[in-house]
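[Discussion] Sanity-checking designs against the backbone

I'm trying to build intuition for which residues belong where. Below is a C-alpha cell string of 756 positions. I'd appreciate it if someone posts a full sequence so I can compare it with mine line by line.
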C-alpha cells in the first residue's frame, strides 16, 4: 500500500532546501513550481499572485508557455483562478473546461489540460494568490494531494509576506499585501497620529516551517494544548476576569475550540505532512479563517475572532513568547491596532512612544478610550477588519477627527496629513498662549476648568494645560496597573506626589472604583453578574470590603497632612452609603489622631451623582455632602438605559438631547439652591459644544482630559453667557420639536463666531 503522506513530506523537504539556497526570487519560484509538478505527477503547476488592483498575475509556471509569466492576467472572480481567489476555497475538477467559471487564456496554451486543482495562497485568512496543478487526463486529485498543495501555498504566502516577490513586480504596480487601504468608523478622540502599526495581539510570524521529527512536534503540540486548556479552565474557575455575559461566552468558545477533536486532528495531519507545530497552527488557522469569512451565519462569523485569538495564544505557547515582548520593542511612533482592549492593557505601553489607538470594537465612553483621551492620543473605533489587514510595522495614519484610518498610505496622502499635524501643532500653540489668561466668559463670569487624572505620568499636564486643579483623580488606575493590591505606603506616596504637583491647586480624589468592567485580576472576590455595570462595584464593593476602603482612607489622610483633603465617593445610590463611608473615615481620623499623625487641615466629603435614584433626593443629597460631582458618562447610560460599551447603541442617543440637559439643569439648580458646589467630570466637559451647554445650564466648574482644556477655554473666552442663558430660558423647557438641541447650540455658536 502506498504511503500517501510520503509525497507531501518529500515535497516539503525539497522546499525547505530551496528556501535555504541563495536564489533570486524568480528562480526560486520557477524551481518551486517545477518541484511541485514533479512531486504530484502533474504536467502543469502555476502560481498566480494577487496585485493591489485586484488582478491575479501569473508569476511562475511549469508546463504552460513560459512567455506568459507576468503577462497572463485574470481579474478577481474571473475564471477558475479568479473564483478560487474570491472565495478562498480550493477547486478540484476532473474536467475543468466544463466548469461555468472556466476562462481560456490563449497565451498560456492550457486548452489541452482537463483535470485541475487550485488552492488559495492564504495568510491569516487573507488571499494573496492561487496555486494550481493540471493534467491532461481526467482525474480527481486525492485529499492528501490537496493537503500537500495547501501546505506548499502557505510557504509561498510567507515569501509574499516577507517582501521577497516585490522585486518581480512591474513598475507602478503593487502586490495586494502592500495595497493602501482606508477604513471609516467613528471618532473616539480627536487628533491625528502618523506612525507604524503595533498589533496589540500580534500575529506570530512563523519562520521555522519544516519539521525534522513529526512525533516530536506532535508531543510539543500536545504539551502546549494542555497548557492552553489549563489556562482557560483556570480563568473560568478562579474568576480572574469579568466573565459574565459576553466575556464568559468568549472563554467558553475558547474552551470549545481548545478541546475540539477536529481542530486537533487537522493540526496533527499538517505536522505529519512535514510542518512544525507552529506552522501547522498557522496553516489550520488560515484555512479556517478563510472558510468562516464566507459564512452567512453572524454568530459563526463572530466566533472567527475567538478562534483567531485562541490560535494566537497557542502560537505564543509553542514559541515561548510573553506579552511583554512587543511592548519592549515598540517603534518610537507606535499606533496600537486592536480588536478590543482594557484600560490597564493600554497603560502597559510606554506613553512616550504612543501616537494613536485603533479599535475594531469599543465605544466613545469605554474605559480604554477614556484613558487614551487622558493620555492625549487620537482614537478611531469601529474599524472592522483593520486587524486582519494590518501587519506589524505598516505605515498608518489615524484621523481621530474624521473617524478614519489609512493603512500603507500613498505619499501624497501622508504629506497632506503631515501638514494637518503641523496645523494642529500651531493651534496647540494658540491654546498654550491661553494658559495664563483668566478662565472667564466674554461677559466676565469665572468658570473653573479642571483636569482628570489617575497616574503620576498625568501630573506634568496640570501646568502644561493650565488647569485650575484636578477635578477627578481616578485612584483605581494605580490598582489596575499593579500585579497585586498596592500597599498603603505606595498609595500614600502617590497621593502625596499628586498634591505636591498640584502646588496648592485643589485635588479631588475619588475612592477606588473597581468592579463592572474594571476588574483587578488579583482580586479573588469577583462574582458572577448578569449585568456588571449595575452590580457589585464602586462604593457598593468597598463598603462590603471595608478593609480596602480603610487602607485607602488612611493613606489619603496621611498624604494630605497639613493640606485640604477632598474625597469623593463613586456610584452613590442612597444617602445611607454616605453615612457608612463617613463612619469609616471618622474611625480612621480617630486612629491617626491617637498616634499623633499630621492630619489634613480640612476634610471635604463629596458624592458622585451617577445613579438616577439621587435625582429624586437632590436637596437631601446636597445637605449630606460638602460637594457633588456629576459623573455624566454613567448618569447618561442609566438615564437613557443604554449600555455605553454596546457598539450598536454608541451613536444612537445624544447626550445633548433636551431630556438629559433638563436632568443636568435640575442638578445645577439644586446646587445653587443649597449652596453646595457642583462639578461635572464626565466626557461632556471635554467637547467645546457640550462644555458650552453645561456653562449655560449653570455649571461653573467642569473637569476634563488635559488635552481638552485649550479648546474649551478658547470657546469660553468668546462666550456671551447672558445670551446663552436666555437661549436656554427660551428652548430648554419648550416642547421638544423642530431642530434637535445640538443643532440649535451649533447655530447659536456659529451666529456669534464662537470656536467649537
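Best answer:
Here's mine. Compare freely.
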Amino acid at each position: 500500500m502506498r504511503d500517501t503522506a510520503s509525497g507531501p513530506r518529500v515535497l516539503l523537504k525539497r522546499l525547505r532546501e530551496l528556501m535555504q539556497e541563495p536564489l533570486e526570487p524568480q528562480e526560486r519560484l520557477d524551481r518551486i513550481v517545477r518541484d511541485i509538478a514533479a512531486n504530484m505527477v502533474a504536467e502543469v503547476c502555476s502560481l498566480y499572485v494577487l496585485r493591489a488592483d485586484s488582478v491575479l498575475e501569473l508569476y511562475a509556471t511549469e508546463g504552460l508557455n513560459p512567455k506568459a509569466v507576468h503577462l497572463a492576467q485574470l481579474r478577481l472572480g474571473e475564471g477558475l483562478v479568479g473564483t478560487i481567489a474570491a472565495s478562498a476555497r480550493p477547486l478540484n475538477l476532473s474536467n475543468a473546461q466544463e466548469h461555468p467559471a472556466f476562462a481560456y487564456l490563449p497565451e498560456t496554451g492550457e486548452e489541452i489540460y482537463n483535470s485541475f486543482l487550485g488552492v488559495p495562497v492564504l495568510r491569516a485568512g487573507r488571499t494573496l494568490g492561487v496555486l494550481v496543478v493540471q493534467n491532461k487526463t481526467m482525474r480527481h486529485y486525492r485529499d492528501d494531494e490537496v493537503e500537500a498543495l495547501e501546505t506548499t501555498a502557505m510557504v509561498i504566502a510567507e515569501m509574499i509576506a516577507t517582501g521577497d516577490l516585490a522585486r518581480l513586480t512591474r513598475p507602478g504596480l503593487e502586490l495586494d499585501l502592500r495595497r493602501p487601504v482606508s477604513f471609516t468608523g467613528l471618532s473616539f478622540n480627536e487628533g491625528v497620529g502618523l506612525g507604524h502599526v503595533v498589533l496589540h495581539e500580534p500575529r506570530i510570524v512563523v519562520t521555522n516551517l519544516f519539521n525534522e521529527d513529526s512525533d516530536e512536534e506532535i508531543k510539543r503540540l500536545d504539551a502546549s494544548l494542555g497548557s492552553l486548556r489549563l489556562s482557560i479552565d483556570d480563568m473560568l474557575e478562579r474568576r480572574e476576569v469579568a466573565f459574565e455575559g459576553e466575556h464568559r461566552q468568549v472563554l467558553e468558545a475558547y474552551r470549545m475550540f481548545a478541546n475540539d477533536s477536529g481542530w486537533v486532528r487537522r493540526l496533527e495531519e499538517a505536522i505529519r505532512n512535514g510542518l512544525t507545530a507552529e506552522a501547522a497552527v498557522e496553516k489550520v488557522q488560515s484555512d479556517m479563517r478563510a472558510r468562516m469569512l464566507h459564512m452567512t451565519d453572524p454568530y459563526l462569523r463572530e466566533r472567527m475572532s475567538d478562534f483567531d485569538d485562541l490560535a494566537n495564544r497557542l502560537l505564543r505557547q509553542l514559541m515561548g513568547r510573553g506579552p511583554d515582548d512587543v511592548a519592549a520593542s515598540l517603534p518610537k511612533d507606535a499606533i496600537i491596532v486592536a480588536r478590543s482592549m482594557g484600560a490597564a492593557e493600554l497603560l502597559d505601553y510606554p506613553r512616550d512612544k504612543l501616537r494613536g489607538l485603533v479599535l475594531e470594537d469599543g465605544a466613545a465612553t469605554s474605559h480604554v478610550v477614556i484613558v487614551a483621551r487622558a493620555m492625549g492620543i487620537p482614537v478611531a473605533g469601529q474599524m472592522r477588519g483593520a486587524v486582519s489587514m494590518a501587519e506589524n510595522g505598516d505605515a498608518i495614519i489615524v484621523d481621530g477627527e474624521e473617524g478614519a484610518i489609512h493603512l500603507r498610505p500613498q505619499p501624497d496622502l501622508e504629506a497632506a496629513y503631515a501638514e494637518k499635524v503641523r496645523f494642529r501643532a500651531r493651534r496647540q500653540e494658540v491654546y498654550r498662549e491661553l494658559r495664563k489668561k483668566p478662565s472667564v466668559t466674554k461677559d466676565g463670569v469665572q468658570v473653573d476648568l479642571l483636569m482628570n487624572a489617575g497616574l503620576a505620568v498625568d501630573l506634568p499636564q496640570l501646568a502644561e494645560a493650565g488647569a485650575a486643579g484636578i477635578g477627578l483623580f481616578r485612584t483605581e488606575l494605580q490598582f489596575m496597573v499593579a500585579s497585586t493590591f498596592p500597599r498603603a505606603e505606595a498609595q500614600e506616596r502617590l497621593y502625596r506626589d499628586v498634591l505636591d504637583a498640584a502646588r496648592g491647586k485643589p485635588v479631588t480624589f475619588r475612592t477606588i472604583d473597581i468592579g463592572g468592567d474594571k476588574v483587578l485580576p488579583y482580586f479573588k472576590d469577583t462574582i458572577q453578574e448578569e449585568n456588571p455595570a449595575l452590580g457589585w462595584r464602586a462604593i457598593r464593593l468597598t463598603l462590603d470590603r471595608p478593609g480596602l476602603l480603610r487602607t485607602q482612607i488612611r493613606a489619603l489622610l496621611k498624604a494630605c497632612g497639613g493640606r485640604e483633603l477632598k474625597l469623593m465617593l463613586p456610584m452613590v445610590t442612597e444617602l445611607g452609603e454616605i453615612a457608612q463611608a463617613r463612619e469609616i473615615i471618622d474611625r480612621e481620623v480617630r486612629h491617626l489622631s491617637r498616634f499623633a499623625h499630621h492630619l489634613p487641615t480640612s476634610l471635604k466629603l463629596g458624592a458622585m451623582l451617577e445613579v438616577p435614584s439621587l435625582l429624586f433626593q437632590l436637596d437631601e443629597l446636597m445637605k449630606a455632602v460638602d460637594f457633588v460631582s456629576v459623573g455624566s458618562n454613567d448618569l447618561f447610560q442609566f438615564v437613557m438605559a443604554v449600555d455605553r460599551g454596546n457598539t450598536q447603541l454608541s451613536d444612537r442617543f445624544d447626550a445633548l438631547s433636551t431630556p438629559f440637559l433638563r436632568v443636568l439643569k435640575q442638578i445645577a439648580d439644586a446646587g445653587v439652591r443649597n449652596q453646595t458646589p457642583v462639578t461635572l467630570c464626565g466626557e461632556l466637559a471635554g467637547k467645546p459644544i457640550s462644555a458650552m451647554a453645561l456653562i449655560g445650564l449653570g455649571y461653573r466648574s467642569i473637569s476634563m482630559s488635559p488635552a481638552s482644556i485649550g479648546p474649551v477655554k478658547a470657546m469660553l473666552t468668546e462666550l456671551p453667557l447672558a445670551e446663552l442663558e436666555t437661549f436656554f430660558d427660551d428652548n430648554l423647557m419648550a416642547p421638544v420639536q423642530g431642530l434637535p438641541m445640538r443643532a440649535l447650540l451649533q447655530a447659536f455658536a456659529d451666529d456669534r463666531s464662537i470656536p467649537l
